[in-house]
Write a structure and sequence with these properties.
Number of strands: 58
Shape: globular
Structural class: mainly beta
Helix content: under 10%
Strand content: over 45%
Low-confidence stretches: 1-27, 44-51, 106-120, 261-265, 293-297, 307-317, 519-525, 545-558, 586-601
Length: about 725
Amino acid sequence: MKGCKKLLAVLLAVLMLTALTVPALASSEEPVVITAVTLREEDANYVDSALYSQYETVEFSDGSSQTIDVDSQTFVLVIDGTVVDLADPDNWTADAELYVIDKGNYDTVEMSMNSANWGNFYFTGVVDLEDGVYQADRSIPAAVSGDAEITDEGITGGEINIDASYISGIYIYNEDGSHHTIQDVTINSAGLGGNDFGTNGGWGTVISVAGSAEVDIQGVTVVTEGPLHDGIWAGGSSVVDVYDTVVLATEAAEEYGFTAYSYDKFIIADEPLTDEEIEAYGISGEYYAEDYESMFGSGTHYYYYNDNYTSNYSAPMLQCVPLALGLYGSMRACICYGQATLSFYDSLAVSNAWAVLSTDSGSGTLNGTDTIGIIGEVTDEENAEVTATVNGETYYINVYDTTEGSGYITYCDGFDDNFYGCQFYAPDYLAILTGGTFDFTSSDTQRGYGWSDRTGFMSHGSAYTMVVSHSDFDIADYLFTVKSTGAVDITVEDITVSWTKDNAWGGVLFQFMDNDDVGTDANDLEMDILDLTYEEYLANQADSSDSASSDASGESSSTGTVKTVTIKDSDLTGDIYNSTGSSNNTTTKDTYDGSTSYLSTWTTSIVAITLDNSTITGVISTSYAQHCDADGNAIVGQFFFNKDGQPIDGTEENTYDYLTSGRVLNTVAYNGIGQIEVTLENGAVWNVTGTCIINSLTIGEGCTVNGTVTENEDGTLTVEPLAQ
């Protein structure tokens, strides 16, 4: 009779919360349990968990049933203090607690992209705060255990355990700037998330803050497992300050049956496919068309899928990181979105894939002070490469290299990113920039530090300002890779760089190059790039004469751009190359005939380098850059890359893995497009280690160039090392 009483108590709770008519329970010694759940009819084909709120009817073993209005309410099932899957018959036990809660103010929130096919995504939280008030009718107190205090001001203490496939953890929203505190709470969240582009928060996010709410997160531990499942999400114009907090995120994609993208399941096309193409892809002819408008442009996408394919995790943006970035994965530990301000102090954030402290689609602010960000995993003391103590607890972390995982620490796409005394460890990139401002420097107590098994900072945007100062770096290949044709401003001051690998393509402080990102859809696994031959590269000098011109001073026509680089108070060993004009993106893999007629209109790209009280030991030159394989062999012509290098559509001999992105060999050369101006000030020294070609050289008083300079017929300068 115990189980019957418990379910009765729960149903009475449902009655109080929703004023629904509760079915009478049979007077039987047998416990009343759930026997079936039913989706609303029009959603019967969609069974993925992000649409869990479409469950309309629950049937019970006594023959009764309960139906709710799924437009305004949702069922939530709790067992032993944990939110679990309502649709799983293994959870239909006598000790299960069934709740009906209001969807509250979030039932019109749609994913910002690709919502047409999948419908609205609804947001509820175990702890739900709106307009300065704790919303008991939209919360699940049974999922909060321990000594927890929940008030209108927030939550202090206790533990929350949830399946993120069915509910978020803590959800805070207001438009009046109400202040809340989340303190000394441990949150364990596992399951499939949704898509972290939601207008008011990512589905499945552990802590979501939206609107103009102001929130302090103090001494909190967030453990999140499963794809598309952010630990902390700040959006709208909210202000979120995070102190002495730990976020540990694990992708676990295979465990949750998550496949980000597969050619045999889902094809995205810009035009309707022909019958021949449908047959070649091995998919059905079923599709839907959706108009889109995003930061990348507008148009129509055609989504083709197999008859038995119903996953709503196929939204191209952003169910996984765009492979165009030279990355893979489906987990971001923390996100700052819109115009929000998200700040971390003395905290630790770890993700084993994609990203740790990311931004997206806005112009807010992301800050970090004395905070550690790592792509890796928690391990034991014996196998730890980093040890961190946060809020009195010691954590041992295994840092991933490129053989173990993929990801970056932070992103800047129009935000104001500021990191003071932070330590970043990543297999691929410490940071990626497309716009905004970026500052990586010391705090009041320590210098900044970065370790990357590939590249320090990668950018493929324009009009950003970047300062990296008072910091130390251990880098495998490139400190900076700049894939932009537009103007940028980079300042380096008081830094040290140690090279951890001796690759044929590495040891480069700055690599300015053509953008080898082809496409931005997260699931567009075909990245096709046309590398020019050396002869074609040199021929571009004549081809580009109509669009850009230069003289010995490096002055260019109005069609060109200037990237300014200032290196101050640093003693660095490494090379600097401007290889713009070496290759070209193309989407014509089926029709490419080897000619140069597919090349873009070239414009001059000047890199203006100033050495200020600094010493550079290395080559500074314009160059011809060629992508290369993992053995350092140049790749000629058009090639493709995907996550693992498996053959794509018959291109077995010319398909490489994602690490090919941005990996180039440099040959000193000049084609009239990529140019370099060098200026030495305040006692600067350039120790020339190899042949260089530059467009101008200005040597200030007290400065030294340890090399010989020769003027060439085309107005360039060749700089050679001094004879030994």
